[in-house]
Amino acid sequence: MNTQATPTAIADETLAQPTAAVIDGKAASARLLEEVTAEVASLAQQGVIPGLAVVLVGEDPASQVYVRNKLKRTVECGMQSFEHILPSETREAELLALVARLNADADVHGILVQLPLPAHIQEDAVLEAIDPAKDVDGFHRMNVGALVQGADALAPCTPTGCMRLLRDTFAERGGDLSGLHAVIIGRSNIVGKPMASLLLAANCSVTQLHSRSQNPAELCRQADIVVAAVGRPNMIGADWIKPGAVVIDVGINRIAQSAEQSPTGKARTRLVGDVNFAAVSKIAGAITPVPGGVGPMTIACLLANTLTAARRQSA
Ligand SMILES: Nc1nc(=O)c2c([nH]1)NC[C@@H]1CN(c3ccc(C(=O)N[C@@H](CCC(=O)O)C(=O)O)cc3)C=[N+]21
């Protein structure tokens, strides 16, 4: 902002504008996918085509959209994709039998079972049945333990994507994450907890906030880095953010959109994050948008994990 030549002349205008840099997750994911594509091509010359199996149980429309996007990107990268869409009444035993077949299939290097599963299926039984070497989600206990210990493991895709965005953002400013205070809002197994392990490995001081935390906004205001992963639309307001902090918004919330707001003029839904973007972008140093932030990075990291798994299995 101090690069502005005539600050006095534009003061009123800049007050109304977002001051934060908007972190472009689409561009970052395109760069990562380009790297993955090149490496898939070189692995293919050795006769190995990385294969990703995606298993979806039930007909949840949002899940179907993610699965379709994953398949599209998988093929674009030159990988093989194996799609298994099972009815919502599928028995746990049938799903476990499918996982066992995928574990034994040498053409399948990565297995993703889309969560959440229907209530009658025990999620951990399924996750623990996946061969840890093929667990590209990083949800198996073996990989969770390795991550906590700082060992080389397949790490969950969304937190890995957040780390890439953070590293790029600080690298652009000529720095790194070491010694910075990171506040994570949320303690889920798929985002909050692995995020803490990754930030710690990057030498951050890590604070984890959750639904029982006292004075969360006050604690969050001490953060250089904020990672919001709660699943509550627009929960994080400007009063949670220290000026200049880097804000990563993991939330993907579908909320009703009135007909007037909709580009098509029809009442529909729109995606918003856990962070109130309009308010926070006036105070943060950098912020990810929703959509176009963390989401695309998740898919790119899934394919990067699949490449890693394929390399290890064919070494
Ligand atoms: N075993 C498992 N692993 C997962 O990684 C997993 C899962 N289950 N269950 C569901 C969630 C959700 N998820 C998303 C990935 C990409 C976008 C994404 O690319 N979103 C786009 C927009 C998509 C849209 O417009 O709907 C964006 O944020 O720009 C979103 C959501 C992975 N998940």
Characteristics:
315 residues, alpha/beta, 2 domains, 6-stranded parallel beta sheet, 3-stranded parallel beta sheet, disordered N terminus, binds 5,10-Methenyltetrahydrofolate, hydrolase, NADP
Q: Can you describe this structure?
A:
The protein is an alpha/beta fold and 315 residues long. It has two domains: 47-146, Leucine Dehydrogenase, chain A, domain 1 (Rossmann fold); 156-295, NAD(P)-binding Rossmann-like Domain (Rossmann fold), CATH 3.40.50. It is built from eleven helices and eleven strands. Helix 8 links the parallel strand 5 (181-185) and strand 6. It starts with 6 loop residues before the first helix and ends with a helix. The structure holds 5,10-Methenyltetrahydrofolate. 5,10-Methenyltetrahydrofolate binds at residues 65-66, 69, 112-115, 137, 157, 252, 271, 290-292, 295-296, 298-299.
